[in-house]
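ugh finaly. both done.
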Amino acid sequence: MLKEDKMHGSPGSSEEFARSYLARLTTILARLDVEAVAHVIEVFLDARRRDATIFFMGNGGSAATALHFANDLGVCASPDGRKPFRAMSLTANTSLITCLANDIGYENVFYKQLKNLMRPGDVVVGISASGNSPNVVRALEHALENGGIAVAIVGFDGGIMKKIAKYVIHVATDYGEYGPAEDTHMVLDHLISSYLAQIPAE
């Protein structure tokens, strides 16, 4: 998960490892581009104003983050009595994903869903530590080619997704630092959702 031998040498005691991990995570969080975060928040607020849907997608740990993000926007940031965020995770339907993977290839599991569901003006958020996941890249390309707004939340060097998305939050980490990258992606979910929960719908 982390290539910890490369990052920190011998792990030593569990207490030393915890200090080292948290120190590394603190450094990464301190470098985060808050202006980029603010831009994505504005994209989400604009989507709510326009009744546009915000789609989330990712693989592995990022699939869990995509689901969590959609939950937080659709529930925590959309209390009763307020115009809700239309948020949906493309990682949620296991039977559909395995059907698409089996029938037309895993690289198409998000693209095909967007082809059926996305309307011009919808927001498509790809989450990936590497920024190179072929199925996420293909779906973002589809969004860009069909009037969608492409957002990338990435780690490592940002990969292909950083280059093609219109809006990017880049969690700069060393290659292979999945844990700190994915931890920070979850912090972004809670940061953004907590802020949006306080902003009345226009």
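ok and the 2nd:
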Amino acid sequence: MLSHLVRLDDWLRVPDRPYAPASLLEEGFVHCSPDESSVLAVADAYYREVAGPLMVLLIDEERLRSEVRVEAAAPKPPPGVPEGTRFPHIYGAIERSAVTGMLEVVRDPYGRPLRLAAWS
């Protein structure tokens, strides 16, 4: 299972089309995380200032049409993630049928992630 952080509004913006975040156009792939602790570290490092609900898409790699490569973070992993941790990257849009679940990042009043929780 791959995990991808996304603002809820971005996920809901075009519900009848595959999901294609800005990183796909800018970098050629969709950033994912290999596990919960990495998701929380990425949220802490890059998403503290993001307003609104922050979600984690749970993506079944077997349902994707696009290639998935597990690669080193460049230039290095975010704080809290061990050196050498490799991150999945999806080289194409994400079919919505490949998303098998969604969790919410529970944050404190300062935007720091505390945990992942079921989304209702």
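summary for the 2nd one i guess: The chain has a mean pLDDT of 95.
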